Amino acid sequence: MELVVVDSYRELSLWAANRVADLIRRKPNAVLGLATGSTPLGLYEELVRRHREEGLDFSQVTTFNLDEYLGLPPDHPASYHYFMRENLFAHINVRPGAVHIPSGVAADIEQECIRYEEAIRQAGGIDLQILGIGRNGHIGFNEPGTPFDSRTHVVDLAEDTRRANARFFNSIDEVPRRAVTMGIATIMEAREILLLASGPEKAWAVARTLEGEVTPEVPASVLQRHPRVFVVADRGAAAQVKKLAG
Fold this sequence. Notes:
Helices cover 32% and strands 17% of the residues. The protein is α/β, with parallel strands linked by helices.
């Protein structure tokens, strides 16, 4: 794992955008794994700018999102289908058929999980997976205790996760209690992983991910076993990393 410490959220977003853009220019048909939440918003904003002003071409790119809330239709303002459309897909030239997000309203959700795994396999696997990190160390919606061999599956969301995401809803009562997410084994099969972390509230999780025991109780700690991971953190998020302090 390589830690990249930056001075600001803007710098974090630019570093990540450079990595994504370099991959697309090198491999126009790249397969991207994408995340939602507030952390990657700056990345997506910069990718949109580069598409509009510099001609960054997404026409051959394929995307797979990490997760979706169970029970939210794609047009719900808090769904991740809506989030991705509003913040990225509507503003670049990605083909609609090349965009993949788990369905939160599939009639057979277990079959949807199997279908999603197969779609990733058919696409040749993920070249670059973007991750955020939860305050409890979750990646995707893989909460503490998730087995490392898990594939795309349905999860019960921790209350801490629901509280953290309540800002996207009118109240915490509206936050779904379940979601469908790529599993940890699925994430670990990406050829490269880029984990973004911003703010002091992520400091505990970042330190445990980089320097703690590899344990399902801190799901992101499994990234220590991946051959190519970049953790890009601002100074607040990196504040508890011991090797920086000493």
